[in-house]
Amino acid sequence: MHLTRLALTNFRNYARLELDLAPGLTLLQGNNACGKTNLLEAIFYLATARSPHSGAERELLRWGASDEPIPFARVEAEIVKRNEMRTVLEIVLVQAAEKNREEAGKPNSRVNKRIKVNGVGKRALDLYGELNAVLFLPEDLDLVFGSPGDRRRYLDTTLAQVDPRYGRALSKYNQVLEQRNSLLRDFHERAFNPAELAIWDQQLVAEGAYLIARRAETVERYNGLTTEIHPRLTDGREELRLVYQPSVTLDAPAPARQPSLLPGEPASRTTDIASQFARQLEMMRPRELGAGLTLAGPHRDDLRFFIHRSAERNPIDAITYASRGQGRTIALSLKLAEVALMRGETGEDPVLLLDDVMSELDAPRRAALSQTVIDSPQAIITATDLDDFTDEFLSRARILHACDGQIENEKDA
User: Both 170 and 296 in a single domain?
Assistant: First the structure.
């Protein structure tokens, strides 16, 4: 699949933008704070219905849009898939009206979100899979050095794009988890009904087992892909290994499914995982009643990265010992593996979005990365300095310039 058109209205620093896009390489050059990252964010927002940045969705509305009678932002794109079918995606954010006189004149952080696919209203979950996108941001160092929650969110976003059942299971799991935690918190305040908790346990186990099975399979698939990708980015000096650490104790690791994962069908492991999850919840019941929260499940999983350097015998834990440069290369390897993963799962090439990707990389790694992405079916890459790219890369890329919420072709700049 590839994007053919992107239209923004009142999104971040873009008042109005109409941009035609083509397959292949698009290089967006400009100084900092010109809107390069905002454009990539808009595309990813259409793919996932959520911003990769933390903060309220109100912040997506352009500064100054609040002066309009009805403050709003619109992101719209047209995509073409392998079967030549065209799809128009649209997300509109409208600032909610004040509920009472006391709120009048005060900043309002509430927004209403409306999603349409080919003009038909959809839920956020229904948007996943319409446009598959892989986004690298400089802050993706948090995948390596950040919290387990950062890594769980990454796995969830990736899997939800390629497996609709995963997105539904995740949504249901989070709803059940909230209800179960509420019941555990109220244990000391009202009469405890074991049967009520058992109902939530059954639902938590059913949805959670699927999440665990898919995560385990996917991490093993990543390992098969990064075996080739990571050495290419490190001139053969390093190998990368991912280790999935579920909080539910499993009897044996989930096997990788070859040649590709089958969305909705890790059933060979799901039943076993559900049994183990249920037993663990039962064993932890006294601790959970004391703590007032659920102590095992996918919401407490982690993902670790280990680097094996050719000159050393033992691998190192990247979270503890990797340098920033190594962490950045790990994140890049992960994203490039994600491209191949999505292609294998869906039969469609995702749009690759790379923001300020060359900064903090030495010359050999920049050259290796350029060579790796040069044949991408569609890649949109931002940079402040074109000198970071090889002559061959520049000759094959369409070069655009970003400045103050405007984008111009190189020949027009």
Answer: yes
